[in-house]
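Complex 273.
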Amino acid sequence: MSLLTINNAACKGCGICVQACPVSIIAMSNNKTPFVSAEKEKRCVLCGHCESICPDSALKHNYLPEMTPIRREKLKEVTSENIAEYFRSRRSIRAFLPKKVDKEVLEEVIDIVRYAPTGVNRQMNRWVVVSDPQTIRQLGEGVISWMKTMIQANPELANRLNFVGLVTAFERGNDVICRNAPHLIIGYTETAYSTGAKDNTIAASHLELLLPAFGLGGCWAGYLMVALQYSPDLKKVIGLDDSYTVHSALMVGYPKYRYFKTPQRKEAQVNWM
Ligand SMILES: Cc1cc2nc3c(=O)[nH]c(=O)nc-3n(C[C@H](O)[C@H](O)[C@H](O)COP(=O)(O)O)c2cc1C
Ligand code: SF4
Ligand code: SF4
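Predicted structure with iron/sulfur cluster bound:
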């Protein structure tokens, strides 16, 4: 069975599914039908973005269960049902409008996450907001340089994380590191602060979840985050030295596309005692 089934009568050939795939395995055939070649199928991370972003319900991912349609009306009322839908319909946003977010809006979002829990209520989270396109580009290029070093130094890790593919895509003009996001929000704490990683990950997660309430979207910039943890030179680009450790990095902006369905996720694994 192939990975995707396309309803040709419904598909407009818009290519949104191609752009939405985080691992860039969907291509368009000559007759404008999306497909995944057999050798690329194993790279699918089963995120469901291709199916859930299709505006015409024309694409079915054959290895994923039925998706839940997202209700169109605004979720204004704070009910458990609405909050559940808000949480479930959050998606990682990897395509942004070329439009800056007002500083006041970013300030408000960052202000709200001060209320996230922190170990012993220490409240040590700090943030860097990068909005200058040249600096965002410099960070992306820095991650690629770090990946090239890792391809030599740790080929097993580089292979597992497909660094060669990412370097090739980036050098061909596809920004697979920062996804052309207009803003990056990078979270860090003092290195000496023992629960920094947990506190900051929780706060960044609150931040990502808050974004849709402001009409925004975001995505963890995992490669950037890890490169900032391992490369002191890259950390200098955002003005940090060894006394600080980066724990999170999010791409943020106005989403270019909306999602229509919520992909299913694995069952919760719980031991009830
Ligand atoms: C720690 C972490 C790092 C991530 N890094 C990246 C990244 O570098 N690039 C990217 O496109 N997505 C990244 N993601 C997003 C995941 O791929 C995404 O959460 C997953 O595919 C599920 O999709 P969803 O968030 O839309 O449910 C990251 C997510 C997490 C939690
Ligand atoms: S997003 Fe839907 S309509 Fe657009 S090309 Fe993909 S399958 Fe076709
Ligand atoms: S499920 Fe995700 S990774 Fe797999 S083809 Fe669809 S968009 Fe790409």
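The chain has two domains: 4-71, 103-253.
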